[in-house]
Amino acid sequence: MTRSPLTTPPPGAVVPAAHPEGPPPGTALGSHYGRCFGCGTDQPTGLHLKAVTPDGATVEAEFTVGEAHQGSPMLAHGGVLAAAMDEVIGMSVYLFRKPYVTGRLETDYVLPVPVGTTLHLRAWCNGITGRQAYLEAEGRIGAPDGPVAVRAAALFIEVGMGHFAKHGDLSAIATELQDYEVNP
Ligand SMILES: CCCCCCCC/C=C\CCCCCCCC(=O)SCCNC(=O)CCNC(=O)[C@H](O)C(C)(C)COP(=O)(O)OP(=O)(O)OC[C@H]1O[C@@H](n2cnc3c(N)ncnc32)[C@H](O)[C@@H]1OP(=O)(O)O
Fold this sequence. Notes:
The protein is of the alpha+beta class. It has three helices and nine strands; from the N terminus they run E-E-E-E-E-H-E-E-E-E-H-H.
């Protein structure tokens, strides 16, 4: 992965173990918000990512590139692929049971991805220090060990739940996501 210093964990950043109250290995991760473009089931042209955590600390997911996700004829739009990486990375950092938002997302596009392709995504944490979490993801064509089409490195910043109340509509998330204490 080509990455900048901004998404490279500094010395001393720690890779957290699975959270004791996090989902057990093998758990399917539901959508955090039905209208989410990445995982929501009420978003007709969304990515409809299906995810599972194999170990409570990383995420594996599948995303099938649809007709609505094209950039050039019958090929996935790069921004849509970046959205898939953002989503799977966001899911993985949420396993540590704190709310984070994307501060920076860097993407390497390695292969074109035709419409109809199922991308097998994987995201993991390379370290956390203070409010900064350094994460990485990859998307492989057709199978978990298929050719790599996309790689991403990201810096996520921890925020309070008040972030979503101040800038968005926390209640819409809170009604769906019962395992967060809502105290903005
Ligand atoms: C999503 C809802 C979830 C709610 C419920 C949770 C359930 C989740 C379940 C499942 C999750 C699934 C998936 C979601 C996936 C999608 C995630 C997204 O796409 S999130 C949307 C896009 N991102 C934004 O909209 C951020 C917009 N930016 C901001 O709001 C601010 O800039 C923010 C919070 C990132 C930082 O602002 P400050 O005022 O709090 O803090 P400052 O002091 O500026 O930054 C803190 C430190 O981080 C560095 N930093 C911040 N942004 C940086 C950047 N872009 N590059 C490098 N460093 C950066 C700063 O330099 C600073 O570092 P120093 O402490 O001084 O060392």
